[in-house]
Amino acid sequence: TKWKGLAGEVAGYDRDPEVRRIAAEIGLVDTVCDSLSDVVRDADLVMLCVPVGVMGAVAAEIAPHLKQGAILSDTGSVKQAVVEAVAPHVPQGVHFIPGHPLAGTEQSGPRSGFATLFVNRWWLLTPSETTDPQALAKLRAYLEGLEANVDTMDAPHHDITLAVTSHCPHLIAYTMVGVADHVRRVSHQEIIKYSASGFRDFTRIAASDPTMWRDVFLTNKEATLDILGRFAEELFVLQRAIRTGDGEMLHDYFTRTRAIRRGIIDAGQDTDAPDFGRVSKQAGE
Ligand SMILES: NC(=O)c1ccc[n+]([C@@H]2O[C@H](COP(=O)([O-])OP(=O)(O)OC[C@H]3O[C@@H](n4cnc5c(N)ncnc54)[C@H](O)[C@@H]3O)[C@@H](O)[C@H]2O)c1
Ligand SMILES: O=C(O)C(=O)C[C@]1(C(=O)O)C=C[C@@H](O)C=C1
C-alpha cells in the first residue's frame, strides 16, 4: 500500500509487542498503534490479517470503534468460517467484504512481506448478495492498485477450491515430511544429505506457520476431509497399479497430471518456480 501510495496513512496493530516493535523499526506501516480500538478508529479500510481462528474475537473487539462507511475485509485462507465468525459483529453501515490473497510463502511475521507480494497474484473476494456494489468496486480498485488480479466467488466455493489447490497439498507435504521423520531405516542425516528437490519442496511447505495451518484445517474441515477422502482413494488405485505392475495405468495417470502442470505454466501462474518450466521445455514439450 505504501509502495503504491494507495492510502493517506497506513496504521497497524499486532497483539505481540515484539511484532509492533519490528513493524515500527522497518517502517512496515506509518503508524503503529497500541490497541485495536485505536488502529481502526478513523480507518476507511480495515484489513484483518490474523489466524482464521481468532478473526471472530478480533472483529468483536473492533466492532464498536469502526467508522460508518468503512470497509472491513480480511486475508484469511478460509472464507465460510470467517463469514460466520465475523459477520455477526459487523455494525450497520460498515461494509464487510471477506477476501483471500493467493500469495505468500512459508515465512510468517512482519519481516516476511514485500512490496510486490501481490503483483499478478489472485486476490479472491467473497461478497454476499447484500454487499454494497460501490464498496465492492472500491475494494477491488484498491487491490488492483496493488497489481493483484481480483475475482469474486461465494465462500463455500472458495473453500472447496482452496482445499484442492492449497489446503490438502499442504497437509500432504506435512505428512510426507512427517513420514520421513518416522522412517527408521533412513537416518535423519541421510534425509538431509540426499534430499531430492521434490522432497525439499515438501519441506519448504511443511515449514509453514503451525498456528495458521492448524486453524485452516480446523475451520475448513468439511472441504479438506472431502478432498482428502478422494486423495486416499486415488492413492489406493496407484498403490495397486504399482503392486500389480500396471505400467500403462501409471503412465496414463502421470501424463494427465503433467498436462495440469503445463496448463498452469501456460496460464502464466507459475511465478514461483521458473526452473520447472525450463525443465519441461528441455524435455522437448
Ligand atoms: N502466509 C501466507 O502464505 C498467507 C497467504 C494468504 C493468506 N494468509 C492468511 O492471512 C492471515 C495472516 O497470516 P500471516 O501469514 O500474515 O500470519 P502472521 O503469523 O505473519 O501474522 C499473524 C499475526 O496475527 C497476530 N495475532 C494473533 N492473534 C491476534 C489477536 N487476537 N489480535 C491481534 N493480533 C493477533 C500474531 O501475533 C501475528 O503477528 C491468516 O488468516 C492466513 O490464513 C496467509
Ligand atoms: O507458496 C506458499 O508458501 C504457499 O503455500 C502460499 C499459499 C498457497 O497455498 O498458495 C498458502 C496459503 C495461502 O492461503 C495462500 C497462499
Automatic annotation (TrEMBL):
It comes from the Bacteria. Residues 1-272 form the Prephenate/arogenate dehydrogenase domain. The keyword Nuclease does not apply. Keywords: Oxidoreductase, Signal. The keyword Oxidoreductase applies. It holds the Pfam family PDH_N. PANTHER family: PREPHENATE DEHYDROGENASE, PREPHENATE DEHYDROGENASE [NADP(+)]. NCBIfam families: PRK07502.1 (NF005694). This is Prephenate/arogenate dehydrogenase family protein. It comes from Thioclava litoralis.
